[in-house]
Amino acid sequence: MLDDQTTAVSSPTSWPSSYPQGYAVVDVETTGLARDDRIISAAVYRLDARGEVEDHWYTLVNPERDPGPVWIHGLTSDVLEGAPLFEDIAEEFSTRLEGRVLVAHNAVFDWQMIAREYARARREAPVRQRLCTIVLSKELRLPLPNHKLATLAEHFGVVQRRAHHALDDARVLAEAFRPSLLAAAAEGVRLPLHECRPLTEWTDRPAAVIGQQSGGGGYGSYRPTSWRPARRRPACPYPNPGRYEDGKPLKQGMRVAFSGDTSVERDLLEDRAVEAGLHVATSLSRLTSLLVTNDPDSGTSKVVKARQFGTPVVDEAAFGQLLRDVEDADG
Fold it and tell me: What's the predicted TM-score (pTM) here?
């Protein structure tokens, strides 16, 4: 139940007929963010057309591999060893998603992780549309200093009890989504709905089997300083095709720089860019194709240089969308 602070936005008397009939607010915890990473817990809050909670569901999932950043999500090999496999909970998960719009904070990430798990289980997630609450908060012009879930929760007076726990993160998001939905309906805002297409480009890398210890406290090569083992990134094999142009796809070889806070850990966001064939630049120059920042009005050196050089700027959510369809390099 939402508290008094979160119900400050009254329900509009006339509801937009184009709005969905139900939502599935989702959060998943994972072993990381790469294509071969796995879901280790999932939670779903089902909401009706006006954002009222109908029920909720939570499960652990055995990833059959190293659990990844335990210092963040708290799920150890011992805890996950007896959990069901994803294929065992896929049917129940489907009943929670079917016929609803998937809602998540940085929804492209949650959707991709879910879709790949279904692909591994040789199934298809019954989701046709998703809604990202980062994008919705921008459509509503909420005065947020950044786009982290904790910041959105604080704006609506929602108390987070256990960050990075799928069930509590889903609860917090559900409570923050309802006043956002009511505000959107009252203002006649078109909801930022995006099509969900099944994904098949998943891979599985050799990894420590869950339950096995491999140094570093039993968590493989992960260390508390990073989601990935320290390493020097290989040089980008593609030539720089130039600057990103609004409305067009990214192209392999483009130089991408990041600035400011991101809702996804920076190292993992950079990993996704490298996997897509982009060149992650540590500084910004006239050759930089794109700057990714959630705070374009900040005074960081990269933002200032981007203004001076006329470098295109997009936020994290838009960059996540662009990563879905990166154009191959010439030749």
Answer: 0.65
